[in-house]
Amino acid sequence: MTQSRLDLAPRARRTDPASSHRAARRARPKAGTDAARVLACIHSFPGLAARLIATIVDIDAYTVRKRTADLRHLKLARSY
User: Where do the record's region annotations for Disordered lie (predicted)?
Assistant: First the structure.
């Protein structure tokens, strides 16, 4: 699978402390890379469960579920 990165918005609320905003900015590149890997897997193997996607892209199923939610929000993936 091709390694690329999606541009995801930082995941901190306006009311969160500055440390949360810094952490969200630091996590953003990794989340974007994980989302791109999940999206590529979804396109290659539609209908797989999160745990199977996790096995294929070598990240944990919890992260797959979070990235899938991000992809649905961006309208790049849909629920089945």
Answer: 1-32
